[in-house]
């Protein structure tokens, strides 16, 4: 397929000649492998020379942002549209509320496991092949969910749906790092959040409407259509973006060696663990919210999306504020302070859950603060992680996403296991994981002076 006109503007510079980058004498020669690596090293040196830790505005094509946003929305859409239907699905399949909450945890497990494979594959084979295979598999697995006749079959198919759907989330992050300068990445993520942020707002509302009109199975048929449309758009409109230097690096080591190399970088792991524990707080709320809002506080399923969407609005707003602050304040400083603020929100949530203060609003107000702070935490942690080792951007994206969903699955599972008809289990789990995020960041990735990245 011919490359699109929206290819990275830095690519022509890379095509001027491998040996020229290294400034070798005319008589010297260099192999394609050496030349590709020299290009990468030269690019990083130039970036370090101008990177002061502050974000820069980028002007990407609208079509690219919409498509990348749709790819990152597979997770939120597949989770959030499904939530209002959990009680109805449980009744239809004769399953308990705890069993239905485990179907959400199963989806998180699938998302965590799948992301470990898609990133290294995209580094080695290119971004397009694993992305397209994942999208097609997602469509097939989702159709199976629509036809499921038992909770066991539904759990298995939800894992398959997650394993495939996470390809879009992983590879979209890697594509952003491929196509844009490091100090523009945060701005791109803020733009993507406007698109993908609509998913947690609209998906529960749409899910509740589809549930009322056609039943819970039609929720999955809607996701089948969405997946098919995005797959067609990606096939025709999304060109290959993986650099030759990334391919050379990936082919020179096994995926296991790639992960081991990342594990040996404390700063990278600090950002990854911060994102993972912050994500665990979010996923714990996502998994527990139907039972708490609908089951404990008697919120009608048709209004569930309004409460859920209000938190998503806070997340989107915080992400946009973060993008503007990051042009004046280094992202690491913002991340450090946001971590402390969100931990304070978690402590307040736990106090309200234990004392019963404020009832429904005693839970929802602190959760709004936590969700909004997630807009600061996740974006900045992602940018920090992707900047540590650019030649392994796909693998880093996999590790970051897998850690987030793995921690989310574990946290949601613990909260579900201790379900007692109150918000206390959810609140206690959220406080613990947010505390772990603070410790991880301050011990492994403390704020540095920005003379370079």
How do the strands and helices of this protein lay out in sequence?
Layout: H1 11-14, H2 18-22, H3 32-50, H4 62-72, H5 74-80, H6 86-93, H7 97-125, H8 128-146, H9 151-179, H10 185-196, H11 198-214, H12 217-237, H13 244-251, H14 255-263, H15 266-296, H16 301-325, H17 331-355, H18 359-388, H19 393-417, H20 424-444
Helix pairs in contact: 3-13, 4-9, 4-10, 4-12, 5-11, 6-7, 7-8, 7-9, 7-13, 7-15, 7-19, 8-9, 8-12, 9-19, 10-16, 11-16, 15-18, 15-19, 15-20, 16-18, 17-18, 17-20, 18-19, 19-20
Structure description:
- By secondary structure, the protein is mainly alpha-helical.
- The chain has one domain: Growth Hormone, Chain: A (Up-down Bundle).
- Helix content is 78%, strand content 0%.
- The protein has 20 helices and no strands.
- The longest helix is centred in the middle third of the chain and has 31 residues, at 266-296.
- The protein starts with 10 loop residues before the first helix and ends in a 9-residue tail after the last helix.
- Mean pLDDT is 80; it is low at 1-50.
